Amino acid sequence: MTEEKIYALVRENVKQLTPYSSARDDFKGEASIFLDANENPFQTTFNRYPDPHQRALKAAIAKIKGVNPDNIFVGNGSDEAIDLVYRIFCAPGKNRVLIPQPTYGMYQVSASINDIQCDHVSLTANFELVSTEILQAVTTETKVIFLCSPNNPSGNLLEPGEIETILKAFNGIVVIDEAYIDFCDTSSWTTRLSEFPNLIVLQTLSKAWGLAGLRIGMAFAHVEIIALFDKVKPPYNVSGLTQNVALDILTTQGKAKKEMVEKIVIERNKVVERLMSLNIVRKIFPSDANFVLVQVENAKEVYAKLVKSGIIVRDRSNVTLCNDCLRITIGTESENEQLIDVMKQL
Length: 346
Ligand SMILES: *Cc1c(COP(=O)(O)O)cnc(C)c1O
Description:
This protein is α/β, with parallel strands linked by helices. It is 38% helix and 16% strand. The protein contains 13 helices and eleven strands. The strands form two sheets. Strands 1-7-6-5-4-2-3 form a seven-stranded mixed sheet, with helices on both faces. Strands 8-9-11-10 form a four-stranded antiparallel sheet, with helices on one face. The longest helix is centred in the last third of the chain and has 23 residues. Bound molecules: pyridoxal-5'-phosphate. Pyridoxal-5'-phosphate binds next to helix 5.
C-alpha cells in the first residue's frame, strides 16, 4: 500500500481539520517570561502546560524500542490510541472494522462509541489466525482490521505469516496490538514498520513495565499516520506528572523491568505445570503473555470458590471459543501458590 492510499482512507472531516494550535506550539524559541498561556506564575510545580509532543519521553521510548521518535505516538493508555484510530479513519454510521474473536473487548466498545459496525471472524479452536477467512470478510466499507498478538484472552502469538498476508492484501489499516510482546522472545512488528505504510503497532507501559496506573500507551506507525494522531488528539493528552514519572522509570529501571519479566515468565511456567496436575483442569492454552487461559470442569464454580477465598481471576466462560475458561494473571510466587492451593480443594 502506498502513502497516498493511506491518506485516501482518512475521514473527510479530519482531512479538512485545522488542528488546535496551543501556546507552546505557536512559540518555539528560548524565552524567560511566559505570558502566553494564562498560567499562574505563583504556583511553582505543575503550573506550566506540559509538552504537547512529549519530546523527552518519546526520545527515551525511541531508544528502548529502536524506533525513530517521528514514528511514535504517546497516549493516555492504549485506549486513547484505539479511539483515535476510529476517529481518524472511520466515518460513523458508514465504515466497518474487522475484529477476530475472541480478543480484547476494547476494540468493540470503542467502535460502538464511535458508531462503527464490527464484523467478527472466529479464530480457530486453538486461537489461530486464518488470513483467508479474515480477508474474505472484508467489505468495501472495512477500514481497519484489529489483530492482538499475543492475543488476549488466549495468550498466544498470532502466526506472523498470516499477519503478513493480511498486511499485504488488505487496502486499509492493520492494527497489531502488542500489549504483551515483552513476555515472548519474538521480535516486534515495529521492526517492519518501513515495509507497511498501513501498519499501526500498539504497545503499552501497563503490562511488562508494570505501570498500568500511569496510563501510557504507544502507537508506532509511518510518520503520515503519526501526524494524523497528533492532529486529532487532545493537545495535552499526557500530563506533565505522567511524562516525568514515565521518563524517569524508563531511563533508570530498564534492568528491573527485564528481571520482572523473567520472574513472571518463570512463574507462568510453574503455574502451568501445577495447574496440569489438577483434576478439574481440562486444558491449558499455551501462553506468550503474563496470564494463562485455563479450561476447567465448571468455570462458574471455580470462579466462585476462588472469590470466596479472596482471589479474583477473570471469568471468560461467556466469550467465543472460551467455554468454561478462566483467564489467570500470573502474580507473585506466594499469590500463585495460594491460587493453586484453593483450586486443589475442588
Ligand atoms: C492490557 C491491554 C492493553 C493495555 O491498555 P492500556 O490502556 O495501555 O492500559 C492493550 N491491549 C490489550 C490487548 C491489553 O490486554
